[in-house]
Amino acid sequence: MRQPSVIARRVAAASVSLVVAAGAAACGPKDSDAKGSGGDSTPHKGGTLTVLNSEPQSDFDPARLYTSGGGNVPSLVFRTLTTRNRENGAAGAQVVPDLATDTGRPNKDATVWTYTLKKGLRYEDGTPITSADIKYGIERSFAPELSGGAPYLRDWLVGAAHYQGPYKDKKGLPSIETPDSRTIVFHLDKPEGEFPYLATQTQFTPVPKGKDTGTKYESHPVSSGPYKVVKNENDGEHLVLERNPNWSAATDAERKAYPDTIDVRSGLDSSVINQRLSASQGPDAAAVTTDTNLGPAELARVSGDKKLAARVGTGHFGYTNYIAFNPTVKPFDDPKVRQAVAYALDRSSVVNAAGGSALAEPATTFLPDQKSFGHTPYDPFPAGESGNPAKARELLKQAGHGNGLTITLTHSNDKNFETSPEIATAVQDALKKAGITVRLQGLEDNDYRDKIHSVKTEPGFFLAHWGADWPSGGPFLAPIFDGRQIVKDGANFNTGLLNDKSVNDEIDAINKLTDLDAAAARWGALDKKIGEKALVVPLFHPVYKRLYGEDVKNVVISDWTGVLDISQVAVK
């Protein structure tokens, strides 16, 4: 059985570490945003960029990070075989070469992928970066003491399922070959047309074996990017990066590396971060955040100030908030009941509960509204903006519930505007109009996650969310709807317990495609097919609104992360 490769989409929002993370027709900042403030809008080298965050950049080891596209702060230090395209909007959802000369060369059935490193690549100490270093960097990510990164390689590489890393098994993984210092070859258990996306994860960062200090490596990882670590206090709470003198822009088309210094300060309250960015006093004028959004109240205040509003970056990430059903629990074993809920839903009230249309966009598809995911517009149970209670009552009557129905909705008590009481109450109010009485079961966040991700305890009706490991339909649909990813004795994400051979077979068929546009179209069609089963009801895609300092220039927000890319920012 394949283990769901997901523990950290959870945040996308984190963004991406990922998380963000930051779906719908995504857009980059307006022209005024990109130019920044002040007389000279041209970005220049120099100065210090301050990053104000709530969550520390902990576990700063490429093996332990779960970061799609290389992450935001990590991508300044860790280069990978491929990376995300650093462009605004949809163009930023593309995968492009980084250390490699291209995005990978597959064999006929996409079970073997070959990469060639660029010439002239060097670490911060001037020594050359080799293919053996990338192989070693990947292998050390299998060590139990360095766990936490994306688990795909354990599932995809031949013979990797039980590998324990180079500290215990010095022979390494035979499925990763390095015939010479610039060539690396990966042998996979099955076709994976999206391997170039996986090669953006930080586990593909080169690590020189002679400089590996195990669990202490995070305090001073050897840089392959434009910046090196000169200070790491309290496990990433205060991180200072300075220029890597041996990084060459000639080998790196993606990172601009304008500031001389990056000063990352974390552990701050979100309201304090937004207050400091708003005031833009002293060093805060050249400050950004990579993990703190504007809330509804803060956004209302900022929107009333033209100067502040011009310093708000808007982005979208592949992320969907939805209602999930467990069809083994009555009355949700009846598709008509699930359809009735879908028709009764008032998405406008849900959007308002999530902070309003500036922070959430209504969703009728599980896939986010972005081309790279293969988004295909559809609404199998059209309810309009405010629901169709008449149609819902009709379906309930057909299901034998002509006198109404009482059900329980499980949600988190965490104030996240996603699975929280505000959203649950909006669903409760909408369904009441269709004769459905909803009792709310609020749980503390840890209890909520434990309950909904266990096959043994999963409730019949609950709020959920999902974010993409990379901008494609594969990591969005497979963990939630592939029957082979149902985990009975662990963390399960296939909430509808769907095990449909035609769905499983189509997932396998799409995974064989190396033409990502063709794959996207197939993911979109599969989304529609699954959506008609009413195992989930999409609610909304979040919109990310983040302030930045008045001296910040060259703001780039891609559809890959949905948040400001600090590799592009200038402060002079």
> Structural class of the helices, strands and pairings?
alpha+beta
Number of strands: 19
Mean pLDDT over all positions: 92
Strand line-up across the major sheet: 8-9-10-1-11
Q: Helicity level, as a percent range?
A: 10-25%
Beta percentage is 15-25%
Termini gap: 53 Å
Given as residue ranges, the uncertain stretches (5+ residues, pLDDT < 50) are 1-39
Radius of gyration: 24 Å
InterPro entries: Peptide/Ni-bd, SBP_5, SBP_5_dom
Region (Disordered): 27-59, 205-226
Pfam families: SBP_bac_5 (PF00496)
Keywords: Signal
For this entry, give a set of tags.
globular, single chain, 16 helices, five-stranded mixed beta sheet, four-stranded antiparallel beta sheet, 17% strand, 572 residues, disordered N terminus, alpha+beta
Structure description:
The protein is an alpha+beta fold and 572 residues long. The chain has helices at residues 12-15, 31-35, 131-140, 152-156, 195-198, 270-279, 296-303, 306-309, 335-344, 347-353, 389-398, 421-432, 445-452, 474-481, 501-511, 516-531; strands at 48-52, 82-84, 95-97, 105-106, 112-116, 176-180, 183-187, 227-233, 238-243, 261-265, 287-288, 312-315, 319-325, 360-362, 405-412, 436-443, 461-467, 536-542, 544-547. A five-stranded mixed beta sheet has the order 8-9-10-1-11, with no helix packed on it. Strand 4 (105-106) and strand 5 form a beta hairpin. Helix 9 packs antiparallel against helix 11 (389-398), helix 10 packs antiparallel against helix 12 (421-432) and helix 15 (501-511) runs antiparallel to helix 16. Residues 1-39 have low confidence and may be disordered. Keywords: Signal. Residues 1-26 form the signal peptide. This is ABC transporter substrate-binding protein.
